[in-house]
Design brief:
By secondary structure, the protein is α/β, with parallel strands linked by helices. The protein has a single domain (about 10-279), classed as Spore Coat Polysaccharide Biosynthesis Protein SpsA, Chain A (Alpha-Beta Complex), CATH 3.90.550.10. Helix content is about 35%, strand content about 25%. The protein contains eight helices and eleven strands. It has helices at about 10-30, 30-45, 45-65, 85-95, 135-145, 165-170, 200-205, 240-245; strands at about 5, 10, 70-80, 100-110, 120-125, 145-150, 160, 175-185, 190-195, 215-220, 250-265. Strands 3, 4, 5, 6, 7, 8, 9, 10 and 11 form a nine-stranded mixed beta sheet that branches. Strand 3 (about 70-80), helix 4 and strand 4 (about 100-110) form a beta-alpha-beta unit. Helix 3 packs parallel to helix 5. The protein is globular, with a radius of gyration of 21 Å. The two termini are about 40 Å apart.
């Protein structure tokens, strides 16, 4: 719509270039990368100090693990903070995998740990204090482990028994990062929807459809998560940054089979779910 004033057309004509610019940005750059650049500009100055504290924690925890083995074909990294019952369920889902050459590295973000499963493959450590930065907690687990592949599972999600086997089949065929489909569920167990999308870096710039709990990746020097201190409303999350950064140089593929039950958790520390989403 255009409104005439003083012989000129305004609003409608004025908004056309803006609409064209928005369309160009969406196609060529993407809104999510722009938000991430803003995050790095605003929060980036804190990262060196955070990285230094992460390295101190890793050095301290390595001393405590002296004599214990964290070597396996797959390291399953489980960050946790005060979700004792759900943590036990998450670990159980790993121990029930049809593929069994793994180690479970549980990293507590300073909240304290419950009594965990009596299994030599389950190794648990606690940070000296809460960081509230999911990337840092996962990085500690990655750096403490020794494996060819790394998998991730949040403490309020669970895997289906075939998750690792399916992902490793693809990785052994030459892929570098694999992610499966996830079923999002309410606290009561009702399935809300299934998130499953083939990997396309050009669509990832405007959509975040890869969740950390669905990822298994070949270990490399760049397999680490962003240390930005993201809050519940910060977009994008560190999982988007992880996949977008790695996909510049590695082969990424999707397995369109649901192997992850993802909890739409109203008590999430990082995702602000609406009340309607959790019913």
């Amino acid at each position: 719509m255009a409104i005439a004033t003083g012989g000129r057309l305004i609003m409608g004509e004025t908004l056309k270039p803006i609409g064209k610019l928005r369309g160009w940005v969406r196609r060529r750059i993407g809104f999510i990368p722009l938000m991430e650049w803003r995050n790095q500009l605003v929060m980036g100055p804190a990262v060196p100090g955070i990285a230094w504290r992460e390295s101190r924690e890793v050095a301290r925890l390595r001393q405590g693990l002296a004599g214990g083995s964290t070597a396996a074909l797959v390291a399953c990294i489980v960050p946790t903070y005060r979700r004792h019952d759900r943590l036990i369920a998450a670990i159980d889902s790993i121990l029930r995998q049809t593929f069994q050459d793994f180690v479970v590295i549980v990293v507590d973000d300073g909240g304290g740990l419950p009594q965990l499963q009596d299994d030599p493959r389950v190794i648990a450590v606690s940070l000296s204090k809460n960081t509230g930065i999911a990337g840092v907690v996962r990085n500690v687990g990655i750096r403490l482990s020794q494996s060819k592949y790394v998998a991730f599972l949040d403490d309020d999600n669970t895997w289906h028994p075939e998750h690792l086997a399916l992902c490793l089949e693809k990785l052994k065929s030459g892929q570098d990062l694999v992610y499966t489909a996830i079923a999002r569920r309410t606290v009561g167990g009702r399935e809300l929807d299934v998130v499953s999308a083939p990997f396309d870096r050009t669509t990832l710039i405007n959509e975040g459809y890869v969740d950390t709990s669905a990822i298994v990746v070949r270990r490399g020097n760049d397999v680490w998560f962003s240390r930005l201190p993201r809050g519940r409303t910060t977009l994008p999350g560190e999982d988007w940054e992880f996949v977008f950064r790695l996909s510049r140089r590695i082969r990424v593929t999707h397995i369109p089979i649901v192997t992850v039950d993802y909890l739409v958790n109203p008590e999430s520390f990082y995702t602000p779910w609406s009340e309607a989403s959790t019913q």
